[in-house]
Each structure stands twice: as C-alpha cells, then as structure tokens.
C-alpha cells in the first residue's frame, strides 16, 4: 500500500447526479473530484490519474467526475443507469433504515456492485487504457453518489416523486439534495466557486473540524477490501441512515431551502462530500495503480 501524502491534486468530491432526477449535480461531483485532487493522493496515483485522463479531462478528477452522468443518457451506456444508486427497501418514515445487498441490489446491478466491478477493472492491467480510464471515471463518480442519502433509498423513487420547493422553485426532494441546497450554499458561502468550496473542505480535513474524524472514514479500506463489497456497503449504510434521521423530517409545504431544514442539511452535505473526496483518494492509493 502506498503512503498517503498530502499532495495538492484536485478535490475528488464527485457529487454525482442520479439518473432519476439530477444528481449530486455537477457542483457536487466537481467538488469531490477537486477535493481528492487537491488533497490526499500519493504522487504515484496522481501520475496514473493524470496520464489516464489526459488533456480530454485536463488531467483532472474533478472534470472527469461528471462523465458518468452524461453518458447514462446515451444508448451505449444505458446499462449503467442502475449503477448510480441502490434502492434500499427499508422504511425511513418508520425510523427503520437499512441496506441489504441481497434484497436491494437487483439483477441489473447497483452502485455497490458497480463500485466492485469498476474497481477490479481499474486494477486490471490487461485491460486497455481506454477501458481503465472508463473504470476510473465510474469509480470516481460512484464514490460520490453513494454518499448522497437519496441515492441509497427506494422510498418514492429516492425522493424523486416527492414534490418540494427550494427558494420558491418547484422541484422534488431528490433534486433538493442533489443540487438545490448545495448550489445555494456554494453560492452564498463560497462565492459560487466550486474550487473555493473544495479548498474549504480540504482545510477542514487537514486542520479543522474533520481532522479527528478523517481516519475513521477510511478504516474499511484495506488491500483485501478492494475486490469486495464490504466498503461500499459501509458507505451506503452510513448515507442511508440520514434518511431516517433527517431527510424526510420536513413540514409539507415548507420551502426546504429557506428553513431549518436547509441549515440542518448543509453540514451533512459538507460532511458527505468531504468523506467522498477523502475516501476516493485513499481507495485509489490503496489500488497502487
Ligand atoms: C486545467 O488545469 C489547470 C491546472 O490545474 C488550471 O489552471 C486550468 O484552469 C484548467 N483548465 C480548465 C479548462 O479547467
Ligand atoms: C462490469 O463492467 C463491464 C464494462 O462496463 C460490463 O460489461 C460488465 O457487465 C460489468 N459487470 C458487472 C457485474 O457489473
Ligand atoms: Zn450519478
């Protein structure tokens, strides 16, 4: 395993977009990519990533992180749509949250099986550079999506079928989490600049409120965990727990982006994006690419 250097690479907060509505929109995904890049990837991993992505993606995980949301609308990649989420068939309104692979990951695959598959493919040196680049883009994106609570929930199609209002605009609950609250926060607090936001999350990890937590975010990541589903399952359960504690705890008719719902959600979104970027860095480093 490679050592974990604090190299300025590029934030790998891929806040991914979900197919059913939006996704951790591009802002989220770019943030994740950027956090990973700026922060925690070893120089060996950085070289691999830069060479693999090349000028098409400005050698940047932040840029490449949104690719998976673009191609899922193309016929050739339609098979990848179910890879952006897992339909946890739990009961969040009854305070019963859970993710079970056998129950929730269908025959078409889900985000957990996809992370396993593309992690294996990324490490498989017999695959072509194009195939490995594709695997890298998928892994980067799915490690983002899996931290969004409504990408890990079946109820009302992950909230897509729940009408909601954000800053006076009609939308749905899923989109409020993917983009509505995040975009508002980045605009209000970080001058509408993803890189400034990503840099703030990196600072929190390195010296701020996340510093004492960060090592706990990656405890499941070991050499042997790379070819299994144990880590993605841990991450999915963690995000899914917010469906019981927070996500469905609103007053119908309220503007979710102008109430305490928003001020409660933002620290969760910041935390989940920071975790995704940090985990992506460690996950890639552990692969010894
Ligand atoms: C490409 O990356 C460089 C160095 O990180 C950066 O300065 C530049 O703005 C990027 N260009 C684009 C189009 O993102
Ligand atoms: C793994 O990825 C390849 C390439 O996209 C795909 O053809 C295959 O069906 C995937 N396998 C699983 C189990 O998801
Ligand atoms: Zn997605």
TrEMBL record:
Keyword Repeat listed: no
Signal peptide boundaries: 1-23
GO molecular function, one term: nucleic acid binding
InterPro entries named in the record: PLipase_C/P1_nuclease_dom_sf, S1/P1nuclease
Keywords from the UniProt entry: Disulfide bond, Endonuclease, Glycoprotein, Hydrolase, Metal-binding, Nuclease, Signal
Pfam families attached to this UniProt entry: S1-P1_nuclease
Transmembrane segments: none
BP-aspect Gene Ontology terms: DNA catabolic process
Superkingdom of origin organism: Eukaryota
Sequence similarity: Belongs to the nuclease type I family.
Protein name as it appears in the record: Nuclease Le1
Species assigned in the record: Stereum hirsutum (strain FP-91666) (White-rot fungus)
């Amino acid at each position: 395993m490679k050592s974990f250097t604090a190299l300025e690479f590029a934030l790998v907060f891929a806040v991914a977009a979900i197919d059913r509505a939006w996704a951790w929109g591009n802002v989220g995904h770019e943030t994740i990519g950027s956090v990973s890049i700026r922060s925690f990837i070893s120089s060996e991993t950085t070289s691999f990533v830069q060479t693999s992505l090349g000028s098409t993606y400005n050698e940047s995980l932040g840029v490449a992180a949104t690719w998976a949301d673009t191609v899922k609308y193309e016929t050739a990649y339609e098979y990848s749509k179910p890879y952006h989420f897992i339909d946890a068939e739990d009961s969040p309104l009854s305070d019963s949250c859970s993710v079970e692979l056998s129950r929730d990951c269908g025959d078409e695959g889900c985000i957990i099986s996809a992370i396993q598959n593309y992690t294996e493919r990324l490490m498989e040196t017999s695959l072509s550079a194009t195939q490995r680049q594709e695997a890298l883009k998928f892994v980067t994106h799915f490690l983002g999506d899996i931290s969004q609570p409504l990408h890990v929930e079946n109820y009302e199609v992950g909230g897509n079928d729940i009408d909601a209002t954000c800053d006076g605009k009609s939308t749905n609950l899923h989109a409020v989490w993917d983009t509505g609250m995040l975009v508002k926060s980045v605009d209000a607090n970080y001058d509408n600049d993803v890189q400034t936001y990503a840099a703030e999350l990196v600072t929190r990890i390195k010296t701020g409120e996340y510093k004492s937590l960060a090592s706990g975010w990656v405890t499941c990541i070991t050499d042997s965990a790379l070819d299994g589903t144990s880590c993605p399952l841990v991450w999915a359960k963690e995000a899914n727990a917010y469906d019981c504690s927070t996500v469905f705890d609103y007053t119908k008719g309220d503007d979710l982006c102008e109430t305490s719902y928003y001020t409660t959600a933002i620290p969760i979104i910041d935390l989940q994006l920071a975790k995704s970027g940090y985990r992506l860095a460690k996950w890639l480093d552990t692969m010894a690419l």
